[in-house]
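Support reply, case 0932

Customer input (verbatim):
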Amino acid sequence: MNQLKIFISAYACEPGLGSEIGVGWHWVLEMSKYFELWVLTRESNCHTIEPWIAEHPEYSGIHFLYYDWPQWARFWKKGLRGVRTYYNLWQMCTNGIVKRTMQENDIRIFHHLTYGNVLWKVSSYGQKQFFVWGPVGGLESIPTEYSRHYDRKSQLIEKVRRIVTSMAVWNRGFRKRCKQANLILCKTGITRDLIPQKQADKALLFTDVAADISCASGLDKKAEQDVTEFITVGHLDAWRGFDLIIEALPEVITQNSKIHLTIVGNGPDKTRLERLVKKYALESFVTLAGKVSMNIYRDLMRNADVVVNAALKEGAVTVSFDSMAMGKPLICLDTTGYTRYFTNDYAILIPRKGRTEVIQHLEEAMLRMTQTEEQERLGRKAQEVSERFSWENHGKEIRNAILKAYTS
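Our regenerated output:
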């Protein structure tokens, strides 16, 4: 029987990486098991995708298409700098590719996969077809109670974001996409609740990440050590809550000084975090490891006892699911999105309330996790449930959601 054809716009899609790029890649691999796919991504991803496909011929049926501006025309874009502008231009420039490919191959379904921000552009041709949108988010904001502790630039960014998100319901592009979409996959309850009432029945709460159970393959038993190793991972943005963890540490250390925190990642908030570490004299308790390779990341995760994700909105989701797969307890703030896959049976969920209260809860959670028996109990239960939330099972959920929407 012929497979249903789907065109996927996946700006971020590359093997062997995490975050949004890893999301795009995993979704494509899982969807290819059930659909015939045409995947449009950046030309800069070709150098890793093609060798990977050559080594994994079982995925050779995926039709990859590539596009980028010439290097000389995008000199101003470097890393995440200028990403929003370039992304929106890329969407406009690739609209012709979407139209031509869908028409020539009789493709009826268009899936906009990455980036999943409801306020960012989508192919004008694609969204007029049977349109699957998401998973999307981007309507979450950080309360002033938290952002007033940020540096001036980050405070301004959050102030602008609060204004933009509060006006989203009047955003013409957002409303148009909601109207044209046949299926809206929402990362968080906050996003789903802001979908216009007339389109609410098309919106599903649907996380973009799953547990990569291959993380646990060949996992060596961690060597016994006196110090409890905590790890937190992500791009160093102010809203990711690394400052909350640092400010929780002094009280934790007064009760148990045999702890250590590794912060993995790089970004604009690094200087402020370094100042906080120095302010509280935590130099011997905190290591800012910077951005590391995937292999080093895996080693650091294996060596850790506990994973902490204090992001104030949907962030560091990949590492949270990695913690599950690797049998590490997770301490996290409840963001109304991916956290619905975690319970207090194998994680510690902290409500996002007042800043002082959140820091106090982090202190209590970290102290609790210095108890070896608690670590092992929660970690064991986390790994037991990881199979239920694996990429393979998530792929079936993706298939079922699309087929139900398309055939109804």
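We compared this against your earlier run and they match. Two observations from our side: DSSP finds 15 helices and 13 strands in the chain. The longest strand covers residues 35-42. Please reopen the case if you see a mismatch on your end.
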